[in-house]
Design goal:
Elements (H helix, E strand, L loop, with lengths): L1 E4 L4 H12 L4 E5 L8 H9 L4 E4 L5 H10 L4 E4 L6 H6 L1 H22 L3 E7 L10 E2 L10 H19 L4 E7 L1 E3 L18 H9 L6 E4 L11 E2 L1 E3 H17 L8 E6 L5 E2 H12 L5 E4 L10 E2 L2 H7 L7 H14 L1
Parallel strand pairs: 1-2, 1-4, 2-3, 4-5, 5-7, 6-15, 7-12, 8-11, 9-14
Antiparallel strand pairs: 10-13
Bound molecules: nicotinamide-adenine-dinucleotide.
Nicotinamide-adenine-dinucleotide binds next to helix 1, helix 5, strand 5 and strand 8.
Length: 335
């Protein structure tokens, strides 16, 4: 059985679907700080079974001990994290307590239970606004805000922990820009506040639920002048997390690879304008938008070097722009 922290969140809930399809049972832990309980109904609709859910905080050591005592947990996917950059700047202590102390509490509970298999949902924010256009995992880490710094700190802590005991196997997955939703339309991103997910913003602007989309900058040195990023379908990310967990469960990894860090992206750049045009093409709706000046510090273009994930996990993204746009719009129609 797998423990999914942040289980009702965007990435973990879609991973729960992938685990169910692979026949891997899981228990979801979430304090519902940034996701609604209705996610559980969506999961039940897709999998045909009510998910096993515990509402609680990953910083609650006694609760974690009780979960490890009650369920035969073999590995953990750690996705419980606060991720809003602005909120992190305003409340750094909250972010470090939640993201860093939360991870330390989890690791200590895992050690007490003798469970030493962990997949951590890390983030491409660890790279800052890089000058390199195609980023290998060895690229410099330049976290620019408390949220990103918390990810770097957690990766470093995991490195130390993995080195401390021969049984530890840890994979940190640096996720690039997840978009889209489950193709059923029953599950998608449902944050408590405003989202920064460009495709969700596009869908909400198109549905008249927010002002027109602002496109920041049209004079970048990219083919159409707008910023280029590595967007990836959330179901591709979910499959990546599943493969990572399966690998850790079977792992006889060499001691030098007790903690591996892998980028999960498509390895292909998509510009804001390309995403907008694809959305219009695949949904048949016009996206209301306006042009705005460049945002300070935004890099023109950066994408993941995904060769390590291909080599070590046998994973690569399969879904393209059409699926990203259609699934995001289908989910928007239900939201
Ligand atoms: N969505 C993105 O754009 C993106 C991109 C790259 C990396 N990531 C990373 O992947 C991870 C998951 O992201 P997501 O998009 O699914 O975010 P999300 O906010 O949808 O999910 C995180 C979940 O964790 C829960 N949570 C937060 N603190 C908790 C705590 N102390 N105890 C229990 N539950 C807690 C929240 O309620 C939420 O349901 C995060 O670490 C995030 O930084 C996300």
């Amino acid at each position: 059985m797998i423990l999914l922290t942040g289980g009702t969140g965007f990435i973990s809930s879609h991973t729960a679907v992938a685990l169910a399809e692979a026949g891997l049972p899981c228990v979801l832990l979430d304090n519902l700080a940034n996701s609604p309980e209705s996610t559980l109904q969506g999961l039940a609709r897709i999998t045909g079974q009510a998910p096993l859910f515990v509402q609680g905080d990953v910083r609650d050591a006694a609760l974690l001990d009780s979960l490890f005592a009650r369920y035969p947990i073999q590995a953990v996917l750690h996705g419980a994290s606060l991720k809003a950059v602005g909120e992190g700047l305003a409340q750094p202590a909250l972010y470090h307590d939640n993201n860093v102390s939360g991870t330390v509490t989890l690791i200590r509970a895992m050690e007490r239970a003798g469970v030493r298999r962990l997949v951590f949902s890390s983030s491409s924010t660890v790279y800052g606004n890089p000058t390199l256009q195609c980023l290998p995992e060895s690229a410099p880490l330049v976290p620019l805000n408390p949220e990103a710094r918390s990810k770097v700190m957690v990766e470093q802590i995991l490195h130390d922990v993995a080195a401390s005991h021969p049984d530890w196997r840890v994979l940190s997955l640096r996720c690039f820009n997840p978009v889209g939703a489950h193709p059923s339309g029953a599950l998608g991103e449902a944050p408590r506040g405003q989202t920064l997910n460009l495709l969700t913003v596009m869908a909400q602007a198109t549905a008249g639920q927010r002002p027109p989309l602002s496109i920041f900058g049209n004079d970048y040195p990219t083919p159409d002048g707008t910023g280029v990023r590595d967007y990836i379908h959330v179901m591709d990310l979910a499959r990546g997390h599943l493969l990572a967990l399966q690998q850790l469960l079977q792992a006889a990894a060499p001691p030098d690879a007790r903690h591996r860090v892998l980028n999960l992206g498509r390895g292909q750049g998509i510009s804001v304008l390309q995403l907008l045009q694809a959305f219009e093409q695949h949904t048949g709706y016009r996206v209301p938008h306006q042009w705005a000046p460049r945002r300070e510090g935004d890099a023109a273009c950066w994408v993941a070097d995904v060769s390590a994930a291909r080599q070590h996990l046998g994973w690569q993204a399969e879904l393209g722009l059409a699926e990203m746009c259609r699934d995001a719009w289908r989910w928007q129609g239900r939201a």
